[in-house]
Design a protein that fits this description.
Two copies of one chain form a homodimer. Chain A is mainly α. In chain A, about 60% of the residues lie in helices and about 0% in strands. Chain A contains six helices and no strands. The longest helix of chain A has 27 residues. The first copy, chain A, is globular and about 50 Å long.
Protein backbone atom coordinates (compact mmCIF):
# COMPACT_ATOMS: atom_id res chain seq x y z
CA UNK A 1 0.00 0.00 0.00
CA UNK A 2 1.44 3.36 -0.95
CA UNK A 3 0.12 6.90 -1.08
CA UNK A 4 -0.77 6.87 -4.75
CA UNK A 5 -2.68 3.64 -4.40
CA UNK A 6 -4.69 5.07 -1.48
CA UNK A 7 -5.25 8.21 -3.53
CA UNK A 8 -6.52 6.23 -6.50
CA UNK A 9 -9.00 4.33 -4.32
CA UNK A 10 -10.11 7.61 -2.77
CA UNK A 11 -10.72 9.20 -6.19
CA UNK A 12 -12.88 6.29 -7.30
CA UNK A 13 -14.90 6.26 -4.07
CA UNK A 14 -15.27 10.06 -4.08
CA UNK A 15 -16.63 9.92 -7.64
CA UNK A 16 -19.24 7.38 -6.46
CA UNK A 17 -20.22 9.51 -3.47
CA UNK A 18 -20.48 12.61 -5.63
CA UNK A 19 -22.66 10.84 -8.18
CA UNK A 20 -24.96 9.50 -5.44
CA UNK A 21 -25.17 13.01 -3.94
CA UNK A 22 -26.06 14.57 -7.30
CA UNK A 23 -28.73 11.92 -7.90
CA UNK A 24 -30.22 12.45 -4.45
CA UNK A 25 -30.32 16.22 -4.98
CA UNK A 26 -32.14 15.64 -8.28
CA UNK A 27 -34.60 13.16 -6.74
CA UNK A 28 -35.43 15.65 -4.00
CA UNK A 29 -36.32 18.24 -6.62
CA UNK A 30 -38.50 15.83 -8.62
CA UNK A 31 -42.08 15.34 -7.43
CA UNK A 32 -43.78 11.95 -7.46
CA UNK A 33 -45.86 13.25 -10.39
CA UNK A 34 -42.73 14.13 -12.35
CA UNK A 35 -41.29 10.69 -11.66
CA UNK A 36 -44.40 9.15 -13.24
CA UNK A 37 -43.53 10.88 -16.55
CA UNK A 38 -41.45 9.40 -19.36
CA UNK A 39 -37.95 10.89 -19.66
CA UNK A 40 -38.70 11.21 -23.40
CA UNK A 41 -41.82 10.11 -25.35
CA UNK A 42 -42.14 6.27 -25.42
CA UNK A 43 -39.04 5.82 -23.21
CA UNK A 44 -38.67 4.74 -19.58
CA UNK A 45 -40.58 6.55 -16.87
CA UNK A 46 -38.74 8.11 -13.94
CA UNK A 47 -40.30 5.59 -11.55
CA UNK A 48 -38.86 2.73 -13.59
CA UNK A 49 -35.37 4.26 -13.58
CA UNK A 50 -35.57 4.82 -9.81
CA UNK A 51 -36.53 1.17 -9.31
CA UNK A 52 -33.89 0.05 -11.81
CA UNK A 53 -31.11 1.93 -10.06
CA UNK A 54 -32.28 0.67 -6.66
CA UNK A 55 -32.29 -2.94 -7.88
CA UNK A 56 -28.85 -2.50 -9.48
CA UNK A 57 -27.35 -1.02 -6.31
CA UNK A 58 -29.05 -3.67 -4.19
CA UNK A 59 -27.34 -6.30 -6.33
CA UNK A 60 -24.00 -4.62 -5.60
CA UNK A 61 -24.33 -5.70 -1.97
CA UNK A 62 -23.78 -9.32 -2.95
CA UNK A 63 -21.46 -8.56 -5.88
CA UNK A 64 -19.16 -6.75 -3.44
CA UNK A 65 -19.46 -9.70 -1.03
CA UNK A 66 -20.99 -7.48 1.66
CA UNK A 67 -24.36 -9.13 2.29
CA UNK A 68 -27.45 -10.48 0.54
CA UNK A 69 -29.71 -8.16 -1.43
CA UNK A 70 -32.20 -6.27 0.74
CA UNK A 71 -35.05 -6.15 -1.79
CA UNK A 72 -34.59 -9.06 -4.24
CA UNK A 73 -38.23 -8.62 -5.31
CA UNK A 74 -37.16 -5.52 -7.27
CA UNK A 75 -34.98 -7.54 -9.65
CA UNK A 76 -37.71 -9.18 -11.81
CA UNK A 77 -39.67 -5.91 -11.99
CA UNK A 78 -36.89 -3.39 -12.70
CA UNK A 79 -34.04 -5.45 -14.19
CA UNK A 80 -35.55 -8.42 -16.03
CA UNK A 81 -38.76 -6.74 -17.26
CA UNK A 82 -38.95 -3.53 -19.31
CA UNK A 83 -41.05 -0.59 -18.16
CA UNK A 84 -44.86 -0.87 -18.53
CA UNK A 85 -44.88 -4.69 -18.67
CA UNK A 86 -45.50 -5.27 -14.95
CA UNK A 87 -49.05 -4.41 -13.86
CA UNK A 88 -48.37 -3.10 -10.37
CA UNK A 89 -45.22 -1.28 -9.34
CA UNK A 90 -44.20 -0.44 -5.76
CA UNK A 91 -45.21 3.09 -4.77
CA UNK A 92 -42.76 5.90 -5.46
CA UNK A 93 -42.70 6.63 -1.74
CA UNK A 94 -41.55 3.06 -1.07
CA UNK A 95 -38.96 3.16 -3.86
CA UNK A 96 -37.51 6.42 -2.58
CA UNK A 97 -37.10 4.82 0.88
CA UNK A 98 -35.54 1.66 -0.58
CA UNK A 99 -33.18 3.72 -2.74
CA UNK A 100 -31.90 5.52 0.33
CA UNK A 101 -31.71 2.37 2.46
CA UNK A 102 -29.71 0.46 -0.15
CA UNK A 103 -27.23 3.30 -0.70
CA UNK A 104 -26.81 3.91 3.02
CA UNK A 105 -26.14 0.21 3.60
CA UNK A 106 -23.66 0.12 0.73
CA UNK A 107 -21.86 3.14 2.12
CA UNK A 108 -21.60 1.61 5.61
CA UNK A 109 -19.93 -1.48 4.17
CA UNK A 110 -17.74 0.59 1.83
CA UNK A 111 -16.46 2.72 4.68
CA UNK A 112 -15.30 -0.39 6.55
CA UNK A 113 -13.17 -1.69 3.66
CA UNK A 114 -9.42 -1.01 3.71
CA UNK A 115 -7.74 0.19 0.52
CA UNK A 116 -6.15 -3.26 0.11
CA UNK A 117 -9.51 -5.00 0.36
CA UNK A 118 -10.81 -3.03 -2.62
CA UNK A 119 -8.37 -5.00 -4.76
CA UNK A 120 -9.85 -8.39 -3.80
CA UNK A 121 -12.22 -10.24 -6.14
CA UNK A 122 -15.88 -9.47 -6.62
CA UNK A 123 -18.44 -12.26 -6.30
CA UNK A 124 -18.74 -13.08 -10.01
CA UNK A 125 -15.20 -14.43 -10.33
CA UNK A 126 -13.79 -17.43 -8.48
CA UNK A 127 -10.68 -17.40 -6.30
CA UNK A 128 -8.96 -19.65 -8.87
CA UNK A 129 -9.65 -17.38 -11.84
CA UNK A 130 -9.05 -14.06 -10.12
CA UNK A 131 -5.22 -14.08 -10.44
CA UNK A 132 -5.67 -14.34 -14.21
CA UNK A 133 -8.08 -11.37 -14.29
CA UNK A 134 -7.03 -9.15 -11.37
CA UNK A 135 -9.00 -6.16 -12.67
CA UNK A 136 -12.22 -7.97 -11.73
CA UNK A 137 -11.96 -6.63 -8.21
CA UNK A 138 -14.38 -4.83 -5.93
CA UNK A 139 -13.07 -1.39 -6.87
CA UNK A 140 -13.92 -1.97 -10.51
CA UNK A 141 -17.54 -2.61 -9.50
CA UNK A 142 -17.64 0.94 -8.14
CA UNK A 143 -15.98 2.31 -11.29
CA UNK A 144 -18.52 0.71 -13.62
CA UNK A 145 -21.55 1.41 -11.44
CA UNK A 146 -20.62 5.10 -11.17
CA UNK A 147 -20.88 5.38 -14.96
CA UNK A 148 -24.14 3.42 -14.93
CA UNK A 149 -25.61 5.82 -12.39
CA UNK A 150 -24.42 8.91 -14.31
CA UNK A 151 -25.96 7.49 -17.50
CA UNK A 152 -29.42 7.23 -15.93
CA UNK A 153 -29.06 10.46 -13.93
CA UNK A 154 -28.65 12.23 -17.28
CA UNK A 155 -32.03 10.80 -18.27
CA UNK A 156 -33.76 11.54 -14.96
CA UNK A 157 -32.59 15.16 -15.21
CA UNK A 158 -34.85 15.54 -18.26
CA UNK A 159 -37.87 15.26 -15.93
CA UNK A 160 -37.10 18.64 -14.42
CA UNK A 161 -39.63 21.17 -15.62
CA UNK A 162 -42.05 18.47 -16.82
CA UNK B 1 4.71 2.15 -8.08
CA UNK B 2 3.18 -1.19 -7.17
CA UNK B 3 0.84 -3.64 -8.90
CA UNK B 4 -2.31 -2.38 -7.24
CA UNK B 5 -1.53 1.19 -8.16
CA UNK B 6 -0.97 0.22 -11.79
CA UNK B 7 -4.20 -1.77 -11.65
CA UNK B 8 -6.14 1.19 -10.31
CA UNK B 9 -4.86 3.44 -13.10
CA UNK B 10 -5.71 0.76 -15.64
CA UNK B 11 -9.28 0.44 -14.31
CA UNK B 12 -9.86 4.18 -14.57
CA UNK B 13 -8.42 4.38 -18.10
CA UNK B 14 -10.32 1.28 -19.22
CA UNK B 15 -13.57 2.82 -18.00
CA UNK B 16 -12.84 5.92 -20.09
CA UNK B 17 -12.03 3.85 -23.18
CA UNK B 18 -15.17 1.77 -22.73
CA UNK B 19 -17.35 4.86 -22.38
CA UNK B 20 -15.82 6.43 -25.50
CA UNK B 21 -16.37 3.17 -27.38
CA UNK B 22 -20.02 2.99 -26.30
CA UNK B 23 -20.58 6.61 -27.32
CA UNK B 24 -18.95 6.05 -30.73
CA UNK B 25 -21.11 2.96 -31.30
CA UNK B 26 -24.20 5.02 -30.47
CA UNK B 27 -23.14 7.93 -32.72
CA UNK B 28 -22.61 5.53 -35.62
CA UNK B 29 -26.17 4.29 -35.23
CA UNK B 30 -27.65 7.79 -35.05
CA UNK B 31 -28.30 9.56 -38.38
CA UNK B 32 -27.62 13.27 -38.85
CA UNK B 33 -31.42 13.75 -38.86
CA UNK B 34 -31.75 12.02 -35.50
CA UNK B 35 -28.97 14.20 -34.08
CA UNK B 36 -30.99 17.26 -35.08
CA UNK B 37 -33.83 16.14 -32.74
CA UNK B 38 -34.22 17.11 -29.08
CA UNK B 39 -33.41 14.30 -26.63
CA UNK B 40 -36.71 15.21 -24.92
CA UNK B 41 -39.20 18.01 -25.78
CA UNK B 42 -37.69 21.48 -25.12
CA UNK B 43 -34.32 19.99 -24.08
CA UNK B 44 -30.93 19.93 -25.82
CA UNK B 45 -30.66 18.61 -29.36
CA UNK B 46 -28.28 15.78 -30.17
CA UNK B 47 -26.12 18.12 -32.26
CA UNK B 48 -25.65 20.40 -29.26
CA UNK B 49 -24.63 17.51 -27.01
CA UNK B 50 -22.17 16.26 -29.63
CA UNK B 51 -20.62 19.74 -29.82
CA UNK B 52 -20.68 20.09 -26.04
CA UNK B 53 -18.86 16.80 -25.49
CA UNK B 54 -16.33 17.65 -28.21
CA UNK B 55 -15.62 21.04 -26.62
CA UNK B 56 -15.33 19.47 -23.16
CA UNK B 57 -12.90 16.80 -24.34
CA UNK B 58 -10.95 19.38 -26.34
CA UNK B 59 -10.53 21.36 -23.14
CA UNK B 60 -9.12 18.24 -21.47
CA UNK B 61 -6.07 18.49 -23.74
CA UNK B 62 -4.89 21.60 -21.90
CA UNK B 63 -6.31 20.55 -18.50
CA UNK B 64 -4.18 17.40 -18.71
CA UNK B 65 -1.20 19.54 -19.78
CA UNK B 66 -0.93 17.71 -23.11
CA UNK B 67 -1.35 20.51 -25.64
CA UNK B 68 -3.57 23.48 -26.54
CA UNK B 69 -7.19 22.93 -27.53
CA UNK B 70 -7.63 21.93 -31.18
CA UNK B 71 -10.96 23.68 -31.76
CA UNK B 72 -11.26 26.54 -29.24
CA UNK B 73 -14.03 28.04 -31.39
CA UNK B 74 -16.38 25.34 -30.08
CA UNK B 75 -16.19 26.62 -26.50
CA UNK B 76 -18.40 29.76 -26.81
CA UNK B 77 -20.96 27.86 -28.91
CA UNK B 78 -21.27 24.60 -26.97
CA UNK B 79 -20.08 25.42 -23.44
CA UNK B 80 -20.85 29.08 -22.75
CA UNK B 81 -24.09 29.37 -24.76
CA UNK B 82 -27.16 27.14 -24.33
CA UNK B 83 -28.65 25.29 -27.29
CA UNK B 84 -30.65 27.32 -29.85
CA UNK B 85 -29.06 30.66 -28.91
CA UNK B 86 -26.33 30.60 -31.56
CA UNK B 87 -27.63 31.21 -35.09
CA UNK B 88 -25.29 28.99 -37.07
CA UNK B 89 -23.78 25.76 -35.77
CA UNK B 90 -20.99 23.78 -37.43
CA UNK B 91 -22.33 20.96 -39.59
CA UNK B 92 -22.91 17.58 -37.96
CA UNK B 93 -20.42 16.09 -40.39
CA UNK B 94 -17.75 18.48 -39.17
CA UNK B 95 -18.63 17.87 -35.50
CA UNK B 96 -18.41 14.11 -35.97
CA UNK B 97 -14.93 14.53 -37.46
CA UNK B 98 -13.83 16.89 -34.68
CA UNK B 99 -15.21 14.54 -32.01
CA UNK B 100 -13.10 11.71 -33.38
CA UNK B 101 -10.00 13.86 -33.87
CA UNK B 102 -10.12 15.20 -30.29
CA UNK B 103 -10.59 11.75 -28.74
CA UNK B 104 -7.89 10.20 -30.90
CA UNK B 105 -5.45 12.96 -29.92
CA UNK B 106 -6.35 12.58 -26.25
CA UNK B 107 -5.79 8.83 -26.45
CA UNK B 108 -2.37 9.26 -28.09
CA UNK B 109 -1.24 11.49 -25.25
CA UNK B 110 -2.83 9.25 -22.62
CA UNK B 111 -1.07 6.18 -23.94
CA UNK B 112 2.29 7.92 -23.52
CA UNK B 113 1.78 8.73 -19.84
CA UNK B 114 3.33 6.43 -17.22
CA UNK B 115 1.22 5.36 -14.23
CA UNK B 116 3.25 7.71 -12.00
CA UNK B 117 2.59 10.67 -14.29
CA UNK B 118 -1.15 10.24 -13.85
CA UNK B 119 -0.68 11.32 -10.24
CA UNK B 120 0.82 14.68 -11.17
CA UNK B 121 -1.22 17.89 -11.06
CA UNK B 122 -3.72 18.98 -13.67
CA UNK B 123 -3.47 22.49 -15.14
CA UNK B 124 -6.04 24.16 -12.86
CA UNK B 125 -3.95 23.80 -9.70
CA UNK B 126 -0.53 25.35 -9.12
CA UNK B 127 2.60 23.43 -8.18
CA UNK B 128 2.54 25.18 -4.79
CA UNK B 129 -1.04 24.20 -3.95
CA UNK B 130 -0.95 20.67 -5.34
CA UNK B 131 0.70 19.03 -2.27
CA UNK B 132 -2.25 20.30 -0.19
CA UNK B 133 -4.81 18.83 -2.61
CA UNK B 134 -3.10 15.79 -4.16
CA UNK B 135 -6.38 14.40 -5.50
CA UNK B 136 -6.43 17.19 -8.08
CA UNK B 137 -4.28 15.11 -10.38
CA UNK B 138 -4.58 14.15 -14.02
CA UNK B 139 -6.17 10.80 -13.24
CA UNK B 140 -9.06 12.51 -11.48
CA UNK B 141 -9.78 14.47 -14.66
CA UNK B 142 -10.41 11.14 -16.39
CA UNK B 143 -12.57 9.92 -13.50
CA UNK B 144 -14.83 12.97 -13.58
CA UNK B 145 -15.00 13.24 -17.37
CA UNK B 146 -15.99 9.58 -17.68
CA UNK B 147 -19.09 10.30 -15.56
CA UNK B 148 -19.77 13.46 -17.57
CA UNK B 149 -19.66 11.48 -20.81
CA UNK B 150 -21.90 8.71 -19.41
CA UNK B 151 -24.41 11.35 -18.26
CA UNK B 152 -24.80 12.77 -21.76
CA UNK B 153 -24.60 9.38 -23.49
CA UNK B 154 -27.69 8.42 -21.48
CA UNK B 155 -29.44 11.41 -23.05
CA UNK B 156 -28.15 10.80 -26.58
CA UNK B 157 -29.39 7.20 -26.36
CA UNK B 158 -32.94 8.58 -26.24
CA UNK B 159 -32.56 9.66 -29.88
CA UNK B 160 -32.56 6.04 -31.02
CA UNK B 161 -35.85 5.29 -32.72
CA UNK B 162 -36.71 8.97 -33.18
Amino acid sequence: MNDQQQLCVKMVLDAWTKEIGATNALLEKLSDEQLMQEVSPTRNRGVYLLGHLTAEHDEMLSLLRFQEAMYPELMPVFMDAPDRTVATLPSIQQLRAQWNAVNDTLMEHMNRLSADEWFTRHANISEEDFPKEPHRDRLNVIVSRTSHLAYHRGQLALLEGK
